[in-house]
Design a protein that fits this description.
single chain; two-stranded antiparallel sheet; 232 residues; globular; seven-stranded mixed β-sheet
Amino acid sequence: MSQKVVALLPMKANSTRVPGKNFKDFCGKPLFKWILDALLDVEEIDQVVINTDARDILIDNGLETSDRVVIRQRKACICGDEVSMNVVLADDVENIEADIYIMTHTTNPLLSSETIRRALMQYKNAMASGSADSLFTVNKIQTRFYTESCEAINHDPNNLIPTQNLEPWFEENSNLYLFNRESFSSTNARIGRKPTMMVSPPMECSDIDTPDDWEQAVVKTNYMLEKGLIKA
C-alpha cells in the first residue's frame, strides 16, 4: 500500500540578516526555486506544502497552487521571527494529511533530489524495522574541539592522533527532517523520541543564514554549474 508523502517548505517574506533572501536572485533564479525544483523532481513526493506569509510574492514569481504545490496562508498568530519553526510545522501537520512528512528550507539550494530520495528510503526502512520514528540530516565532523577557555573536548593534546581517527561528531545541518504525525506529536517537534541520522553530502550542505553564507553558497554553486555537477 502506497504511503502519502508531503514535503513541508515553510517560507516567510522577510529575513533579518539577508533581507528578502527567499526570493532574491541566486545564480539565475529565485532562491526558493532551487529546493522547490529538487523536491518536485522526487516522484515519491505527492505534494509540496508552502506555509507562507508571502503568497503575493510567490505569485509574482510565477508560482501558484497546483496539484503538487499547495500554498497555505500562514496564520497571523504564528508569523514573526520569534515563532518556533515547530509551531509552524504543527499547523501543517494538523491540517495536511500524510503518512510521511519531509521538511526542508529554502536556504538549502544545493540539496539534490537524489539525497532527498536516499533520505526517504532510509526513513522508510527504519520505520519498517521499528528502529526509528524520525530522521534528520547531519554533517560528519572529525576535528579537534576546544572550549572557550581552551580546554580540549574530544582529544588529548599530549597524545595527538590523526583527525581521521578521532571519534566522529555529528552536526545537525537543517537540510532535511523526516517524520510522521505520531513522532511529531510525541515531542511536538520534527525530531521524534527515537530518531536516526543520515550524513548528507558536504557539497550540498549550504544553509544560508548570513551574508557570508550567501556568498559562500554562490561561489560553490557557480563552481558546480561550471563543472556540470548541477543544472540551474
